[in-house]
Amino acid sequence: MDENLVFNYTISGDDFTRAGEASSDVKNKLKMMGLDNNIIRKVAIAMYEGEINMVIHANGGTITVEISADNIRMILADTGPGIADIDKAMEQGYSTAPEEVRALGFGAGMGLPNMKKYSDHMEIDSTVGIGTTVTMDIHI
Amino acid sequence: MTIERIKNLLDADVLYGNECLDREVRYAFSSDMMSDVLAYADEHSALITGLCNPQVVRTAEMLDIVCIIFVRNKIPDQNILALAEDKEIVILCTGHGMFTACGILYSNGLLGGA
Ligand SMILES: Nc1ncnc2c1ncn2[C@@H]1O[C@H](COP(=O)(O)OP(=O)(O)OP(=O)(O)O)[C@@H](O)[C@H]1O
Ligand SMILES: [Mg+2]
């Protein structure tokens, strides 16, 4: 590939049942491109965790996926409440999700550590009251 | 173990995927927390759960899970079934509770993953 492929998604914050559609679309695209299954699975899980976070913690946002010859970059940006203590948020089991989110099967405080585990590089840029941007790289 | 065998052992109804029952399931994972499933489940697994919403199918899709088993007669709605059909994920429904369903499968040789 000479040029990078770029895909943009807008994630709605008020429809939990539709959360994951963007990740699903990316998974399909990567399959069609014939990428290794292991890499597709890592991208799908990491992006889905991030997409769910956007919906349950930040009232939606945007996701940009950039695919180059040797890397897949996912940029998840929202204008939600932001994360006050990023180190704490990265701890397994730390969650501020309310009870109704737990009843939907999320809010165990596993998402961010899982995103870190499945990506080769992850960066969180967050300001309270402004929003959060998570950037993940997965090498091909 | 094939999905067909799981269906028979659990006396389960097939809500989607009758033509895929010959597929192999390597491991099983049970949880009502999709967070846990995303962190720990292996591919080619069956997911045994009491949670019934579209994100169960989405989670299975991301992990390449081949079969979802809803316990204690939880019946997924059309929305959930349509998504499963789109992703070719077999949907079973059993009257057994979570503990019993897991016990039956485990004692017949289906193990948890890594
Ligand atoms: N985009 C975001 N905006 C604001 N806060 C966030 C965002 N993403 C994560 N957080 C904060 O970080 C905490 C930990 O996130 P993490 O994804 O690890 O767990 P969770 O979403 O609470 O539960 P799980 O991912 O297991 O469903 C969240 O509870 C929330 O307080
Ligand atoms: Mg999360």
Describe the structure.
Chain A is an alpha+beta fold and 140 residues long. Chain A has helices at 21-32, 37-58, 86-89, 99-102, 111-118, and strands at 5-12, 60-67, 71-78, 121-127, 131-139. Chain A has a single domain (5-139), classed as Histidine kinase-like ATPase, C-terminal domain (Heat Shock Protein 90), CATH 3.30.565.10. Chain A has 5 helices and 5 strands; from the N terminus they run βααββαααββ. In chain A, α1 (21-32) packs antiparallel against α2 (37-58) and α2 packs antiparallel against α5. Chain A starts with a strand and ends with a strand. The model of chain A has no long low-confidence stretch (mean pLDDT 96). Chain B has 114 residues and is an alpha/beta fold. Chain B has one domain (3-112): HprK N-terminal domain-like (Udp-n-acetylmuramoylalanyl-d-glutamate--2,6- Diaminopimelate Ligase, Chain: A, domain 1), CATH 3.40.1390.20. Chain B is 39% helix and 18% strand. Chain B is built from 5 helices and 5 strands; from the N terminus they run αββαβαβαβα. Chain B has helices spanning 3-9, 34-40, 54-63, 78-87, 98-107; strands at residues 13-16, 27-30, 45-49, 67-70, 90-93. A 5-stranded mixed β-sheet of chain B has the order 1-5-4-3-2, with helices on both faces. In chain B, α3 (54-63) packs parallel to α4 (78-87). The two termini of chain B are 17 Å apart. The model of chain B has no long low-confidence stretch (mean pLDDT 96). Chain A binds chain B through residues 16-17, 19-20, 23-24, 27, 37, 41, 44-45, 48-49, 52, 102, 104-111, 113-114, 117, and chain B through 32-36, 38-39, 43, 51, 53-56, 58-59, 61-64, 79, 87. The structure holds adenosine-5'-triphosphate (ATP) and magnesium ion. Adenosine-5'-triphosphate is lined by residues 49, 53-54, 57-58, 78, 80-83, 89, 94-97, 106-112, 132 of chain A.
